[in-house]
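Subject: design request, 184 residues
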């Protein structure tokens, strides 16, 4: 097994375990066992658990953000497309909320690398929502962000598309109201 295959196996195991059980609940030995990668190679590729958590979140960010971008790209109704995509995500059998907020909730501001990934992910989401909102509608983008985050939290407690549908309806009210007041 080459290093790239070992990385993939480690990240696959880390993502499944960290997302399902939490970062602190899963040790490096468990990831080694699940991945089949020898401990020595694991620590050569990821010298500390923080580096593995950071790599897991970075990979998840790339996939998650690309999925959402793809869902809204070219849509005549990007607001609806975004919340429909969220509804499908909330309905996945292994849905357990936002991996980034889950990691932050467990680790707080401790590991700088993890916190940086969480902040970058949320900044990317904010930027995507600003694109959807359109130029000069920063307040709307911020409100859409709150709807997305709130729906994600509600769906973590009540899985399924209902929270996304309710948030989509609230988003349509905001879009229709032409909310553009900056600083609110």
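Subject: RE: design request

Done. Sequence follows.
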């Amino acid at each position: 097994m080459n290093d790239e295959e070992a990385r993939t196996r480690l990240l696959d195991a880390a993502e499944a375990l960290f997302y399902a059980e939490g970062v602190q609940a899963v040790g490096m030995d468990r990831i080694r066992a699940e991945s089949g990668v020898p401990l020595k190679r694991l620590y050569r590729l990821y010298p500390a658990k923080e580096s593995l958590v950071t790599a897991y979140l970075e990979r998840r960010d790339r996939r998650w953000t690309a999925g959402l971008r793809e869902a809204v790209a070219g849509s005549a109704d990007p607001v609806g497309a975004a919340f429909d995509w969220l509804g499908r995500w909330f309905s996945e059998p292994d849905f357990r909320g936002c991996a980034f907020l889950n990691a932050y909730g467990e680790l707080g501001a401790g590991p700088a690398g993890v916190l940086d990934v969480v902040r970058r992910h949320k900044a990317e989401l904010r930027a995507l929502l600003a694109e959807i909102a359109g130029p000069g509608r920063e307040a709307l983008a911020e409100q859409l962000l709150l709807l997305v985050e709130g729906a994600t939290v509600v769906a973590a407690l009540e899985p399924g598309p209902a929270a996304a549908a309710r948030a989509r309806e609230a988003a349509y009210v905001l879009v229709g109201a032409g909310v553009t007041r900056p600083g609110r």
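The two ends are 54 Å apart (CA to CA).
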